[in-house]
């Protein structure tokens, strides 16, 4: 299965996503903010990133740009409670491949992960 980086400043959200993904057979690496997510991406080269938008130190939109600068082919799915259309559009324009709104449904997360992993 895939190595997935979960970046979220909320410990319970990282735990929930990590448990869901681990149960589905994936390996999970975690980050607590956008800057840490960029560093973890540089070190771990995960197959996919699940990224929150609102985080301290560096927000998710800045992290998307930094990760895509390291790897233009990076597969990123935004998972955030910010469901505003402008934020979703900005995330997609920055390179995210999908957007999941919290609180999420487990099937929606797994479906997005499988769909994005199946594309190059």
TrEMBL record:
It holds the Pfam family Response_reg. The modification 4-aspartylphosphate is found at residue 52. Residues 3-117 form the Response regulatory domain. Coiled coil: none annotated. This is Stage 0 sporulation protein A homolog. One of its GO terms (biological process) is phosphorelay signal transduction system. It comes from the Bacteria. InterPro entries: CheY-like_superfamily, Sig_transdc_resp-reg_receiver, ST_Response_Regulator. May play the central regulatory role in sporulation. It may be an element of the effector pathway responsible for the activation of sporulation genes in response to nutritional stress. Spo0A may act in concert with spo0H (a sigma factor) to control the expression of some genes that are critical to the sporulation process. It comes from Thermaerobacter marianensis (strain ATCC 700841 / DSM 12885 / JCM 10246 / 7p75a). Keywords: Phosphoprotein. PANTHER family: TWO-COMPONENT RESPONSE REGULATOR, TWO-COMPONENT RESPONSE REGULATOR ARR22.
């Amino acid at each position: 299965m895939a190595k997935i980086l979960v970046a979220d400043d909320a410990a319970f959200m990282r735990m929930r996503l990590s448990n869901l993904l681990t149960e589905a057979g994936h390996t999970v690496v975690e980050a607590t903010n956008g800057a840490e997510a960029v560093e973890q991406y540089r070190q771990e080269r995960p197959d996919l990133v699940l990224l929150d938008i609102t985080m301290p130190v560096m927000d998710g939109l800045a992290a998307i740009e930094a990760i895509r600068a390291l790897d233009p082919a990076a597969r990123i799915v935004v998972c955030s409670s910010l469901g505003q259309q402008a934020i979703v559009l900005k995330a997609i324009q920055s390179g995210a491949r999908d957007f999941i709104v919290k609180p999420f449904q487990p099937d929606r997360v797994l479906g997005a992960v499988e769909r994005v992993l199946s594309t190059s």
